[in-house]
Design goal:
Number of domains: 1
Number of helices: 5
CATH topology: Rossmann fold
Shape: globular
Radius of gyration: 16 Å
Helix content: 25-40%
CATH architecture: 3-Layer(aba) Sandwich
CATH class: Alpha Beta
Structural class: alpha/beta
CATH superfamily: NagB/RpiA/CoA transferase-like
Length: 196
């Protein structure tokens, strides 16, 4: 039996795949700089004791400028590894060149890097294929972020990070899909939930 939700998500993933690949290196660099600037002016980013992010794949908005901003501020930058239980385990990274190619070709921290746990004051920048203004996110289909962070009340602030064209009217979602608390693109930053 065909799952309508899965089919709708897959259609949206396919629609964005070519568009993401069409972004030129210059456009990607300019977008990353714009996102870094928007985050730097956001009070929640400045106040977060620790910031987690990801090493972007070639078709994602580059994340290294944000990593450099976190490190320059003197805070721990946390990046994920896929753990045996299918969740993401975040580890502290001081230098980008400490990252190693992991599963799916994603740069990840070394297995022996210092592990981290989160408080509600921390911030996690989350990749995605598409987001909507209500904070719903469409990922690549692995469910890693949804499994890792679960209910909003138990974890850090999650902020989706993407190109402006990845912000759509509505993202198909189910009960296990984790809503983002904010979304930042190269054109805007908006909070989607109220968390104190």
């Amino acid at each position: 039996m065909i799952d309508p939700l899965h089919s709708a998500k897959q259609r949206l993933r396919e629609a964005f795949a070519e568009r993401r690949r069409a972004v030129s290196p210059q456009q990607a660099s300019e977008a990353a700089a714009a996102v870094r600037s928007l985050l730097a002016s956001w009070s929640r980013f400045r106040a977060a004791p620790r910031v987690a992010l990801y090493a972007a794949l070639p078709d994602e908005l580059p994340s290294r400028p944000c990593f450099e901003a976190v490190v320059a501020s003197g805070r721990p930058a946390l990046l994920p590894r896929i753990e045996p239980d299918g969740r993401l385990g975040f580890r502290s990274v001081a230098h980008w060149d400490e990252l190693r190619v992991g599963r799916y070709g994603v740069l990840t921290p070394a297995a022996d890097a210092e592990p981290a746990s989160f408080s509600a004051d921390d911030l996690v920048l989350v990749p995605g294929v598409a987001f909507d203004r209500g904070g719903m996110r469409l990922g690549r289909g692995g469910g890693y972020y949804d499994r890792t962070f679960g209910a909003p009340a138990r974890g850090p602030l999650l902020c989706g990070m993407a190109y402006a064209f990845q912000l759509v009217d509505a993202v198909p979602h189910g009960s296990r899909d984790r809503r983002m608390d904010a979304i930042v693109t190269d054109r805007e930053l908006q909070e989607t939930t109220e968390r104190g």
